[in-house]
């Protein structure tokens, strides 16, 4: 069964450093998302991406964040200058169609900022 | 704006019994979808069940069913014949069309513990 993959599974970085979280969505999917979950809290939407551009972004997704689909398979989230409060689990998701279709989630990348 | 409310504290259920996890929602959009996801301790998000706002019947998926009461804006998840592997965090979520591809809005989740 096809699945969304994410690398790395765990990333430790120092405050102020740049990190890139990588995702490979399911191959025929067209809509991509990033969510984050601070430990013990709810899952929060960051950004959605379609047709090589951002469709929607949340208040969390400020100028420190960017997304890119550098090739036909990868979908990346970059945090330019990490802060302690960026420590969270970051989930990538994808879906084949807009509307009410299931979003398939990757296993997540746990980001720890020290 | 969409809002999902999950207010139950940690839930406990005896193995093989049924359990209901509550979810209420709020949206001004007449067309929306409701989802339940399971998050075990390993952290991944597992899709369980989906209910569309215009669906006439309650959704069912194996041991999972969704008790959808549109007038009350509730979408409770019922797990029948609980198993030890059902111990996890459960999230209710909603999608309402806000653009070409709409995001999921999650509730804060409910922890379910299944006792042997």
Question: In short, what is this structure?
Answer:
The complex is a heterodimer of chains A (114) and B (116). Chain A is mainly beta.
Strand tally of chain B is 12
**Could you spell the SSE succession of chain B in H and E letters?**
EEEEEEEEEEEE
The portion of residues assigned to helices of chain B is under 10%
Largest sheet of chain A: 7 strands, mixed
Structural class of chain B: mainly beta
Percent of residues in beta strands of chain A: over 45%
Tell how many strands the DSSP assignment of chain A holds.
Answer: 11
* Secondary structure tally, helices of chain B: 0
Order of helices and strands of chain A: EEEEEEEEEEE
| Unreliable parts of chain A | none
Based on Cα principal axes, name the global outline of chain A.
Answer: globular
Tell me what the structure shows.
The complex is a heterodimer of chains A (114) and B (116). With 114 residues, chain A is mostly beta strands. Chain A is built from no helices and 11 strands. Chain A has strands at 5-7, 10-13, 19-24, 31-37, 43-50, 53-57, 65-68, 75-79, 88-95, 104-105, 109-113. In chain A, the strands form 2 sheets. In chain A, strands 2, 4, 5, 6, 9, 10 and 11 form a 7-stranded mixed beta sheet that branches. The mean pLDDT of chain A is 92. By secondary structure, chain B is an all-beta fold. Chain B has no helices and 12 strands. In chain B, a hairpin with a 2-residue loop joins strand 7 (60-61) and strand 8. Chain B starts with a strand and ends with a strand. The A-B interface holds A 31, 33, 35, 41-45, 48, 50, 55-56, 58, 89, 91, 93, 95, 98-100, 102-108, 110 and B 32-33, 35, 37, 43-47, 50, 52, 91, 93, 95, 97-109.
């Amino acid at each position: 069964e096809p699945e969304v993959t994410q690398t790395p599974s765990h990333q430790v970085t120092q405050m102020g450093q740049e990190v890139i979280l990588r995702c490979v969505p399911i191959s025929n999917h067209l809509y991509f998302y990033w969510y984050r979950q601070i430990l013990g809290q709810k899952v929060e939407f960051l950004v959605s991406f379609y047709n090589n551009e951002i469709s929607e972004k949340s208040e969390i997704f400020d100028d420190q964040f960017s997304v890119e689909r550098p090739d036909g398979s990868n979908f990346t989230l970059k945090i330019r200058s990490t802060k302690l409060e960026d420590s969270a689990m970051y989930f990538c998701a994808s879906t084949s169609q807009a509307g009410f279709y299931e979003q398939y989630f990757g296993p997540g990348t746990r980001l720890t900022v020290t | 704006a969409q809002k999902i409310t999950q207010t139950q504290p940690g839930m406990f259920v005896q193995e093989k019994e049924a359990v209901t996890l509550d979810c209420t929602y709020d949206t001004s959009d007449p067309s929306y979808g409701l989802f339940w996801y399971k998050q075990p301790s390993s952290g991944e998000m597992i899709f369980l069940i989906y209910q569309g706002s215009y669906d006439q019947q309650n959704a069912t998926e194996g041991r999972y069913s969704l008790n959808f009461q549109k007038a009350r804006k509730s979408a409770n998840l019922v797990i029948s014949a609980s198993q030890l592997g059902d111990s996890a965090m459960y999230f209710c979520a909603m999608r309402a069309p806000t653009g070409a591809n709409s995001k999921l809005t999650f509730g804060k989740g409910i922890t379910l513990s299944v006792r042997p």
